[in-house]
Amino acid sequence: MHVYEDVATMQRSESNIEVILDEKVVKESEVLELGIQVGDFISFDARTRYTPSGFIKSRHLDDKASVGILLALARHIKEEQVALGRKVYLLFTSYEEVGHGGSSGLPSDAVEIISVDMGAIGDDLKTDEYKVSICAKDSGGPYDYEVTSQLISLAKQEKLNYAVDIYPRYGSDAGASLRAGYDLRHGLIGPGIFASHGYERTHREGIDNTLKLLLAYLQ
Hints:
The protein is of the alpha/beta class. It has helices spanning 28-33, 61-79, 145-157, 173-179, 204-218; strands at residues 49-50, 55-58, 112-116, 119-120, 132-138, 141-142, 162-167, 185-193, 200-203.
């Protein structure tokens, strides 16, 4: 802002974005001596914060929030000895953001996949940080009608705070599974996450509503 007058309109590109090393280096050889080279992964400080009012703020809540929900789900089922109405597998993928996270590793007897991801918050969308988002359609097309309808019906029955939305610039592991050739009924839910792919924010109410919907669906 104090150097470049066009900072408000400057387009981000490979020519004006750089990674700054917290090391006193000025030459390529000095960087290589640190053990840093082409292809290395870059990790960002998540800066996770929990506020007294219930907000959870962090980078990568898409999709750490949903990983936490699935772990809480497994713990609750074990500790409370919850009887499930079906066989359930939990699959954690590493490549959802690049589009092929759900394209392999699914059990041969799976007939249905529920992707637990995030609900995007923005203009013309109904979800917020306090709700469980039920996605009816994304960039890959509509989700299974019966699965989506049942999720909505259960959200009403359990008196959950929920929203149904369409995300035209969004994809999930469930969609990747179908593109890989799996013949599965599929659905998508998740807590509302604000500022996706930035410094994101959700609320424990959104987490709680998502967990309760999953429990109701599995029973």
